[in-house]
Write a structure and sequence with these properties.
about 270 residues; mainly beta; 6-stranded antiparallel beta sheet; about 25% strand
Length: about 270
């Protein structure tokens, strides 16, 4: 089933023309409870994993990593560039014992799906990961949307007085309704609840880009702005994660440096 985010209730670039240079595409994944297979893009579903490749373990406590997400290139709507020879993005994580790193330690893998001749039947089960850090199997319904920065919008491009005036006149708030989509997604901007903490690549000293956001929730089902038309007013089953205090894990990468180095940040709700 498709998921359709309503059009922005205001013409964002007409009302706030200063945000236009910061426009970015994002792919909302809209995970909903389902029975995905290893040949499907999914959140919390089985990964397409070679039977002869060792399953990764956590460097902190030697426990098996948890499958979190996989997305095939055919499902990213042309918005995400994959490394040469790869057509599958996979994300796994384990629980972190050192909360200075957040609640999880993610692992990003890029894979050639056609090279997996004999898939693994089932991964080893983790011994120590909290249940609310293990996503329930969900099918995804990718949708391309446009986002504008909220917390990352430079002060020189933000007119708080006009933001407040537009909200008072129209009932639509720039930060909540017009800028950054909530939920699990690829690319775009993180939806920060705390102060933004955008990593810089150690190799090239440039800001990384947001690659994956894995969120505890997919939005308010009564929201008029970001809730898909198909889900408005409906209680739906999602991955069931509880990251910190209903926060999110943001995974960043540098797509230009060798090996596409990545980093992660956790944002508590």
């Amino acid at each position: 089933m498709t998921r359709t985010t309503p059009p922005r209730p205001l013409d964002v670039e007409r009302v706030f023309p200063e945000v236009a240079p910061f426009r970015r595409d994002a792919i909302r994944l809209h995970p909903r409870a389902g029975s995905p297979t290893a040949l499907d893009s999914s959140v919390g579903g089985p990964l397409l994993w070679p039977a002869d490749e060792p399953w990764p373990t956590c460097p902190a406590h030697d426990d098996a990593l948890v499958p979190v997400l996989q997305v095939f290139r055919a499902d990213v709507l042309g918005a995400l560039d994959f490394p040469p020879g790869a057509d599958l993005l996979q994300l796994l994580w384990c629980q972190s014992d050192d909360h200075r790193d957040g609640w999880v330690l993610p692992l990003v893998l890029w894979r050639d799906a056609s090279a997996v001749r004999t898939p693994l039947d089932a991964p080893p089960q983790p011994r120590s990961v909290q249940r609310d850090l293990i996503p329930r199997p969900c099918a995804v319904h990718p949708e391309l949307v446009v986002e504008y920065p909220s917390a990352e919008l430079p002060d020189t491009a933000r007119d708080d007085e006009r933001v407040d005036r537009v909200a008072a006149e129209t009932g639509w708030d720039y930060d909540a309704d017009l800028s950054v989509a909530p939920g699990t997604k690829l690319l775009g901007y993180p939806f920060w609840s705390q102060e933004p903490d955008w990593p810089v690549c150690a190799g090239c000293a440039r800001p990384m880009r947001a690659l994956v956001t894995v969120a505890s929730y997919e939005g308010d089902p009564e929201s008029r702005s970001w809730t898909p038309l198909e889900d408005f007013g409906v209680d739906f089953a999602h991955p069931g994660l509880e990251i910190g205090d209903l926060g999110a894990v943001h995974v960043f990468e540098c797509p230009t440096c060798p090996g596409r180095p990545n980093a992660h940040r956790q944002d508590c709700g």
